[in-house]
């Protein structure tokens, strides 16, 4: 075997090796795992960017919306309701420290009667949500969050009526009264604060994104038909 024969055989082996590599190509060889990792990372990055862009388009505060926008009205009413909740929390804590004044006809009892009326006076707010806003969200395919909010409204209605019944009753400001007042106040304050937080930060931004622009005129008309809360500053 001369030198040319050896060169010829080496070239043949090289060609054979290349051919075998091509024949045994796998899917991994088509796009190495590191490239897949890059593609997946890029897609995740791009979708996060799109999400951030759309989130930035949704107003986060009442001031971002026109003054007459139903969602701005809801959020401003929430601020007033949160003030009532602070008053109720303080009243229940005050009764635990000293029940003086909480006897029927007493000044602290009178304040509780007024407070219960203000809390029940938020009913038009909840009805506007239930009859004007939620149905449009449900029509747009957002069903879960409005369903949860309706359930919480029902819990709150019962608790507010229980508060009114208790404070308007002739029951003396004894230990049983103070304990019952504390229980009802805990339910109303805890449930309604969390409810408002969810509506302001999750449900309303969802509504602003999901409800088609053409539907808002109908929402405004329904809100006007139901009317404002008695204590509303609007
Ligand atoms: Fe609500
Ligand atoms: Fe609300």
Write a brief caption for the model.
The chain has 234 residues and is an all-alpha fold.
Search tags:
single chain; mainly alpha; Four Helix Bundle (Hemerythrin (Met), subunit A); 0% strand; elongated
What features would you describe in this structure?
- The chain has 234 residues and is mainly α.
- The chain has nine helices and no strands.
- Helix 4 runs antiparallel to helix 8.
- The structure holds fe (ii) ion (FE2) (2 copies).
Provide mean pLDDT, rounded: 86
CATH class type of the largest domain? Mainly Alpha
Distance between the termini: 105 Å
- Major sheet: size, sense and barrel closure? none
| CATH architecture assignment of the largest domain | Up-down Bundle
Low-pLDDT segments, ≥5 res:
52-56
The kinds of small molecule bound in this structure are: fe (ii) ion
Task: Write the SSE topology.
Layout: H1 3-23, H2 27-30, H3 33-57, H4 70-97, H5 107-120, H6 123-139, H7 144-168, H8 175-210, H9 216-226
Helix pairs in contact: 4-5, 4-8, 5-7, 6-7, 6-9, 7-8
This protein binds fe (ii) ion (2 copies).
């Amino acid at each position: 075997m001369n030198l040319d024969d050896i060169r010829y055989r080496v070239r043949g082996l090289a060609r054979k090796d290349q051919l075998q590599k091509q024949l045994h190509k796998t899917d991994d060889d088509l796009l190495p795992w590191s490239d897949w990792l890059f593609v997946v990372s890029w897609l995740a990055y791009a979708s996060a960017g799109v999400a951030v862009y759309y989130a930035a388009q949704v107003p986060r505060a009442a001031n971002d919306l026109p003054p007459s926008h139903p969602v701005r009205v809801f959020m401003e009413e929430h601020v007033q309701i949160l003030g009532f909740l602070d008053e109720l929390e303080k009243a229940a804590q005050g009764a635990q420290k000293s029940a003086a004044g909480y006897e029927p006809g007493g000044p602290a009892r009178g304040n509780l009667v007024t407070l219960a009326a203000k809390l029940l006076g938020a009913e038009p707010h909840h009805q506007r949500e239930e009859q004007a806003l939620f149905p449009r969200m449900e029509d747009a395919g957002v069903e879960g969050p409005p369903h949860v909010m309706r359930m919480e409204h029902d819990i709150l209605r019962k608790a507010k009526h229980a508060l009114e019944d208790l404070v308007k009753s002739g029951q003396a400001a004894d230990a049983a009264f103070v304990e019952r007042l504390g229980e009802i106040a805990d339910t109303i304050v805890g449930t309604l604060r969390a409810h408002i937080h969810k509506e302001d930060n999750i449900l309303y931004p969802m509504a602003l994104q999901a409800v088609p622009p053409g539907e808002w005129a109908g929402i405004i008309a329904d809100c006007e038909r139901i009317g404002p809360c008695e204590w509303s500053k609007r």
